[in-house]
Amino acid sequence: MATEKEKLHPTNFLPSEEIFHLAKRIAKKEKALLDATIGKLAKSIEQVGSSAIPGAVGKMDVDFAVRVERKNFEKVVDSLLSMYTPWKKNTLWNKDFAVFSSTKECPIDVMVVVIDTPYDYFHTVRDYLRDNPSILKEYNTLKKQHQGSSYEDYRSAKNAFFRKIWKDVTSSS
């Protein structure tokens, strides 16, 4: 069942040219804020997701992966609690992964991941889609096919797509 956030974040996809420059501006501002707050604790703070991939169809949201060493995970999570709303804390969070959200100029999600854990893949997926235009085209087609569909239907199709390409994604890093 979709959460309230997911209900407010519909499968309304926009062409890359409509969102890329706006998302880039928003991401630059948000990254500066993240750098100032947790930059010394994070190994990297990277924009990920569709808005970080030229040519990708997206939902006009901005996602970040904050990659941290295990020793800094709790410090980073505690620091972000004053800036963002914890998302799915009771279902997704664990000792290696936490996710926060905000709606400023657009929906913003910040995933905090411990490096070299199963959750440390967002940057790898972004890079794989950037480097493989035919796979990006296939992913864009999937999104267009789910324009206006339920969040559950889109999420199911998206998960199946990534299961299909996962071996190639992980071997490319």
Furnish the topology, listing elements before pairings.
Layout: H1 4-8, H2 16-38, E1 44-48, E2 62-68, H3 73-80, E3 85-86, E4 97-103, E5 107-114, H4 122-131, H5 133-145, H6 151-172
Parallel strand pairs: 2-5
Antiparallel strand pairs: 1-2, 3-4, 4-5
Describe the protein's architecture and organization.
By secondary structure, this protein is α+β, with helices and mostly antiparallel strands. The chain contains 6 helices and 5 strands. It has helices at 4-8, 16-38, 73-80, 122-131, 133-145, 151-172, and strands at 44-48, 62-68, 85-86, 97-103, 107-114. It has a 5-stranded mixed β-sheet with strand order 1-2-5-4-3, with helices on both faces. A hairpin with a 3-residue loop joins strand 4 (97-103) and strand 5 (107-114). Residues 1-9 have low confidence and may be disordered.
Describe the largest sheet: 5 strands, mixed
Helical proportion, percent range: 40-55%
Q: Which consecutive residue ranges, at least 5 long each, have pLDDT under 50?
A: 1-9
Rg from alpha-carbon coordinates = 16 Å
Compute the number of helices: 6
Strand/helix succession: HHEEHEEEHHH
What strand order characterises the main sheet? 1-2-5-4-3
Number of strands: 5
Sheet-strand content, in percent, reads: 15-25%
Query: What structural class do helix, strand and pairing data support?
Result: alpha+beta
Shape from CA axes? globular
Amino- and carboxy-terminal Cα gap: 33 Å
Mean pLDDT: 88
